[in-house]
């Protein structure tokens, strides 16, 4: 009989009403009740934390990763119950921290607490168990609303609907219907391209550009970050007239701070060399991130900066596909 370890971290799935609103409140025994659906598998439970995922921190990703790493020989599969708000960040972070893992790691949760009469939690739990047992795919996946998504490609795009997550710039891995798992896309096995590393550097900053953003902001960043991610316009462009941001990028790069350029557009990635407004960013030292999503870029940069700081090395690692996070530059 296969063994699955369910790691509970809190989230809506175990929330109950408190005086200030919904907050994690169910006990592990109460949650465990919903994992008994005739599955031919041995399921153990571990409460790791009991947080609304809004309160999830990078140090918590390390805690989760270490528990899975330390239990790889004791369990065949892992399921993490987690809040939805930062689930995509956790899925990406674990994909890097557990690079090359041979076991299936599933992250799931719900939009409505499992104890409510109308809830998506029970289905998501059943689907997570079914996918974990039958898909036989190594790596980290988000299972939600009958779909399995590669961990580095999941993005939450809805706040209330059951279909909260979509797979961005990548096919859905599988569809789950009852006890049936229909594999939609089977990724090619990845070889470990970098040495396994269990570390996170949270000293990064995410900047979403808007018309009128003052370049003075970069003066603050020079002394308060080790890495910057810019959500640019369209294909990677930043303004270079009037309130030009190009000089700010150049100054950070000259100081040895990597500046990663992504796009505010969810779909289709970027082509930073296509327009003058993008080419000037690249010439200033901006590092294009192709079709990676922001959640993956943030966590990958944190992981990289915990082991490297040289700009050339950071660029190589960002632009090297890892855990199927990147298809093109």
Sequence-ordered SSE layout with sheet pairings:
Blueprint: E1 3-10, E2 15-18, E3 21-24, H1 28-32, E4 42-51, H2 58-70, E5 77-81, H3 87-97, E6 104-108, H4 121-134, E7 139-144, E8 147-150, E9 154-156, E10 165-167, E11 174-177, E12 180-183, E13 204-208, H5 217-221, E14 227-232, H6 246-254, E15 259-263, H7 276-283, E16 287-288, H8 294-305, H9 311-318
Report on the structure:
By secondary structure, the chain is α/β, with parallel strands linked by helices. It has two domains: 3-183, 3-Layer(aba) Sandwich (Rossmann fold), CATH 3.40.50; 204-318, Rossmann fold, CATH 3.40.50. It is built from nine helices and 16 strands. It has helices at residues 28-32, 58-70, 87-97, 121-134, 217-221, 246-254, 276-283, 294-305, 311-318; strands at 3-10, 15-18, 21-24, 42-51, 77-81, 104-108, 139-144, 147-150, 154-156, 165-167, 174-177, 180-183, 204-208, 227-232, 259-263, 287-288. The strands form four sheets. Strands 4-1-5-6-7-8-11-12 form an eight-stranded mixed beta sheet, sandwiched between helices. The relative contact order is 0.12.
Q: Low-confidence runs (pLDDT<50, min 5 residues)?
A: none
Shape: globular
Largest sheet, spatial ordering of strands: 4-1-5-6-7-8-11-12
Beta-strand proportion? 15-25%
CATH class of the largest domain: Alpha Beta
The separation of the N and C termini measures 44 Å
Quick check: average pLDDT?
96
Based on the coordinates given, report the CATH architecture of the largest domain: 3-Layer(aba) Sandwich
Which structural class fits the helix and strand makeup? alpha/beta
Element order: H for helix, E for strand = EEEHEHEHEHEEEEEEEHEHEHEHH
The total of helices stands at: 9
Share of helix among residues?
A: 25-40%
Largest sheet: 8 strands, mixed
Number of strands: 16
Could you give me the name of the CATH homologous superfamily of the largest domain? Answer: L-asparaginase, N-terminal domain
The total tally of domains equals 2
Give Rg in angstroms: 20 Å
CATH structural fold name of the largest domain: Rossmann fold
């Amino acid at each position: 009989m296969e063994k699955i370890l369910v790691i509970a971290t809190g989230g809506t799935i175990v929330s109950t009403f408190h005086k200030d609103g919904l907050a994690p409140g169910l006990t592990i025994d109460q949650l465990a009740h919903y994992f008994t659906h005739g599955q031919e598998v041995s399921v153990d439970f571990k409460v790791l934390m009991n947080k609304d995922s809004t309160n999830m921190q990078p140090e918590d990703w390390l805690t989760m990763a270490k528990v899975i790493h330390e239990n790889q020989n004791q369990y065949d599969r892992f399921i993490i119950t987690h809040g939805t708000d930062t689930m995509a960040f956790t899925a990406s972070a674990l994909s890097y921290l557990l690079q090359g893992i041979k076991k299936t790691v599933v992250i799931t949760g719900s939009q409505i607490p499992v104890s409510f009469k109308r809830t998506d939690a029970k289905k998501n739990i059943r689907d997570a168990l079914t996918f974990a047992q039958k898909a036989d795919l190594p790596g980290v996946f988000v299972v939600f609303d009958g779909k399995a998504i590669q961990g580095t490609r999941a993005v939450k795009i809805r706040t209330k609907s059951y279909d909260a997550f979509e797979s961005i710039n990548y096919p859905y891995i599988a569809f789950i219907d009852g006890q049936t798992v229909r594999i939609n896309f089977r990724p090619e096995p990845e070889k470990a391209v970098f040495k396994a590393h269990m570390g996170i550097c949270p000293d990064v900053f995410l900047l979403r550009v808007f018309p009128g953003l003052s370049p003075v902001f970069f003066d603050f960043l020079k002394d308060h970050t080790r890495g910057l991610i810019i959500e640019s316009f369209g294909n990677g462009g930043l303004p270079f007239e009037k309130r030009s941001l190009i000089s700010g990028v150049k100054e950070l790069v000259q100081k040895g701070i990597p500046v990663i350029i992504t796009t505010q557009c969810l779909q289709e990635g970027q082509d930073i060399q296509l327009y003058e407004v993008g080419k000037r960013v690249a010439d200033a030292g901006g590092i294009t991130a192709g079709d990676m999503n922001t959640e993956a870029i943030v966590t990958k940069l944190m992981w990289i900066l915990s082991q490297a700081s040289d700009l050339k090395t950071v660029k190589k690692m960002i632009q090297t596909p890892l855990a199927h996070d990147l298809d093109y530059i």
